[in-house]
């Protein structure tokens, strides 16, 4: 393992709780891996417990994964010292995924876990699969991917060990992972309003616009796709620069991605901006989206 494997104090105790949940794995563990902080910490702790030779990072690749994120994931896995296996996923072929209801993430995760079982497990000797759900995710009503994990008997050791997001980030820093302070980067499909079809063209517009904003120094951002209008979310502290000194560059870059109108959301970055309002209304009506 090329990241620091020696942890002390509470970090060592926390890592050991996760490791204890993985000791029963025989053979090789596949970690559903995105390069984000949760799956990176899980990959590192699995390598710490089982050894890098018994852990494989499995990266799902489709139009909903930005090229920047794909490259960053490989760098994190190289830092940890595990191999990466890319598996092509075809959620875009599924009508239920393209329909983009609040359960879209279920269909995406179900496709990933199905492909891992069909295309990766036997070929790479993977006998168990884990993914990076944390204890905070369990409490959120907008995470239907958890149902797919349960159906495929995928392990969730971070959540089962009680690790909240803040703890995961602290461990990432202690382990020296480059993703320790990486902003959350949900899949590109999350930028498209529910019940608006997910298409490669729309995903491509979002990716191009967000990559341009990253180049302009806005590392934590979302470009929400509203037809001809792009609604930009950045942390509140960055709004003044976005709408001020960077305004012309932002306007030019986002329009180049195919948007006619560019708006700034004064509420800032909003996790679950499209899904949470729907699931909250559904909960009041007794409708489930998991």
Describe the protein.
This protein has 290 residues and is an alpha/beta fold. It folds into two domains: 9-174, Rossmann fold (3-Layer(aba) Sandwich); 188-264, GMP Synthetase, Chain A, domain 3 (2-Layer Sandwich). Helix content is 48%, strand content 13%. The chain is built from 13 helices and seven strands. A four-stranded parallel beta sheet has the order 3-2-1-4, with helices on both faces. The chain has a three-stranded mixed beta sheet with strand order 5-6-7, covered by helices on one side. Helix 2 (37-50) links the parallel strand 1 and strand 2 (55-61). The chain is globular, with a radius of gyration of 19 Å. It starts with 8 loop residues before the first helix and ends in a 5-residue tail after the last helix.
Which structural class should the secondary elements be placed in?
Answer: alpha/beta
The CATH topology of the largest domain comes to Rossmann fold
In total, the number of strands is: 7
Q: Provide the low-confidence segments as ranges.
A: none
The number of distinct structural domains comes to 2
Note the beta-strand portion: 5-15%
- Taken from the alpha-carbon principal axes, the silhouette is globular
Average pLDDT figure: 92
Tell me the CATH superfamily of the largest domain: HUPs
